[in-house]
């Protein structure tokens, strides 16, 4: 089996590690615009050798883990270079624009639009680890547009890795993911900003902040290179979630100002049911 | 040594466990308005026996871990009942009102105003565990108002548990803690609310939400009984932090609407320095 990983960072690198564990005989070829990352991936034995798009013609499987703005321009070229038996899977956090971009591509049937609900706030080859995908959800969009034989090949790998599969259309994906992922990142970034602006003395933040703050602000460590194009491609949905979030915060603030602490309590009690919801979310164990 | 724990939940119960480990000979007496909690604490061997305020006269040390609205009314009564050698320490998340409330109390010198930066989103005796306080910060307010001998007794215990001590005035405490703790809780509760309102189908939240959402929304599991009076007592500071947070979110939303993704990127890059700040925060390991 010949597998090409385009983008050898956290997402691509972790996929390579899981596949190598399942198929030790597979040849894993890395493609990345950063030669530093490629060398790092080689050293960490994430890939067996460096490659380029000429390797795609004979690849069984191509997994693309690159920022979504680059994905939009690279995906057509990747499909151009792919062979008839090659299945190309992306891992982009947005799906509408990406699916549109290749909807009329002559090799559309070689593409499977994917979004693994897996990741950490870190990036680069050194952040990759075995098991990132285990127990996580793989969202697949427009599955009917992928050739049946290639669907089978991709699904077999996802199942062997231990992923749960969910099918969805790209518009629904982008709308829901804005709430459960994109909004969390913005709320965390802006929390970090608000605290940093106020607490000029960083020593005070250490001393007074507990694990609650650490948890809530964790996503503010995420890569701006990765997240800026996500917000750009999912602009309408992200703005909608932000407006609702700001509205909820404003209402809560007004309840406090009005000394209406009965309703402050009620707002929190109603939200406590998140406990039950969170029980269903698989955690990342490294 | 005779130690009375008033409020045998996460905070009081964990303190009892740490003290018992250091001083196995100490008698730990539990006082709580909930007899269910007291029985649970007995069963879990967090306390040696149940007690009441008549035990305070001969106690060496009293640790009060109850919601701040109850603390404000109970603390004067607790001091009334305490003996000359008793040091009474609270664990309230607000400090200004509590210090004001007892500022003219004839036994003010028996009181040490404390706020341990330690906790989890869980509550009750079953949530208590050994080691919650180790490596964490204990903030002490108006230390000069506590009798020197009693200061020494309290500090010795905190140091033996492995806590870092920081001194602060009550106003500064309430102002800073609004940023690094109270705001995190509200941002998390309102994130949970926004997502729950939108995602009527809870199954969709499980399937699409990853560990990032889980982390950001974790504090929305916290107890409304505990947090409502905190927001009430720290109203002015909490409203101020909320206004700044809402302003930052509104600015970020406007940058997206204006397609100013260069500044969207810059906002996130500037906030990435939270990485360095977070390195100094001790995590809760259970």
Q: Could you characterize the architecture of this molecule?
A:
- The structure is a homodimer.
- Chain A has about 290 residues and is α/β, with parallel strands linked by helices.
- Chain A folds into 2 domains: about 1-170, NAD(P)-binding Rossmann-like Domain (Rossmann fold), CATH 3.40.50.720; about 175-280, 6-phosphogluconate dehydrogenase C-terminal like domain (6-phosphogluconate dehydrogenase C-terminal fold, Orthogonal Bundle).
- The first copy, chain A, has helices at about 10-20, 35-45, 70-80, 95-100, 150-160, 170-200, 200-210, 210-215, 225-235, 235-255, 260-270, 275-280; strands spanning about 1-5, 25-30, 50, 60-65, 85-90, 110-115, 135-140, 165-170.
- In chain A, strands 3-2-1-4-5-6-7-8 form an 8-stranded mixed β-sheet, with helices on both faces.
- In chain A, α5 links the parallel β7 (about 135-140) and β8.
- In chain A, α6 crosses α10 (about 235-255).
- The first copy, chain A, is globular.
- The interface between A and B is large, with 98 and 97 residues.
State the CATH class of the largest domain in chain A. Alpha Beta
Indicate the low-confidence ranges of chain A by residue numbers.
none
Overall geometry of chain A comes to globular
Q: What is the mean pLDDT of chain A? A: 94
The helicity of chain A comes to 40-55%
> How many separate structural domains of chain A?
2
The helix-and-strand class of chain A reads: alpha/beta
What is the string of helix and strand elements of chain A? EHEHEEHEHEEHEHHHHHHH
Q: Evaluate the radius of gyration of chain A.
A: 21 Å
Oligomeric grouping of the chains: homodimer
Number of E strands of chain A: 8
CATH overall fold name of the largest domain in chain A: Rossmann fold
Span from first to last CA of chain A?
A: 27 Å
Q: What proportion strand of chain A?
A: 5-15%
The helix tally of chain A amounts to: 12
CATH architecture of the largest domain in chain A: 3-Layer(aba) Sandwich
The largest sheet of chain A has its strands arranged as 3-2-1-4-5-6-7-8
């Amino acid at each position: 089996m010949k597998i090409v990983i385009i983008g050898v960072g956290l997402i691509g690198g972790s996929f390579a590690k899981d596949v190598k564990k399942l198929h030790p005989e597979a040849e894993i070829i890395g493609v990345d615009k950063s030669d530093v990352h490629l060398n790092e991936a080689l050293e960490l034995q994430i890939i067996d050798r460096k490659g380029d798009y000429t390797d795609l013609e004979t690849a069984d499987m191509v997994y693309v883990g690159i920022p979504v703005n680059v994905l939009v321009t690279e995906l057509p070229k990747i499909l151009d270079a792919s062979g008839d038996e090659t299945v190309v899977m992306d891992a982009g956090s947005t799906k509408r624009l990406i699916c549109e971009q290749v909807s009329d591509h002559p090799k559309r049937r070689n593409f499977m639009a994917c979004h693994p609900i897996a990741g950490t706030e870190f990036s680069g080859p050194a952040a990759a680890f075995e098991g990132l995908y285990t127990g996580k959800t793989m969202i697949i969009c427009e599955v009917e547009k992928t050739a049946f034989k290639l669907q089978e090949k991709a699904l077999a790998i996802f199942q062997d890795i231990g992923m749960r599969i969910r099918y969805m259309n790209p518009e629904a994906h982008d709308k829901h993911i804005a709430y459960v992922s994109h909004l969390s990142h913005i709320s965390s970034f802006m929390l970090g900003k608000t605290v940093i602006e106020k607490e000029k003395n960083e020593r005070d933040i250490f001393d007074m902040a507990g694990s609650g703050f650490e948890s809530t602000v964790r996503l503010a460590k995420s890569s701006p290179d990765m997240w800026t194009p996500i917000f750009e491609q999912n602009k309408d949905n992200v703005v909608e979630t932000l407006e609702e979030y700001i509205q909820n915060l404003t209402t809560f603030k007004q309840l406090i100002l009005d000394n209406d602490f009965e309703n402050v309590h009620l707002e929190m009690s109603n939200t406590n049911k998140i406990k039950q919801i969170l029980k269903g979310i698989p955690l990342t164990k490294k």
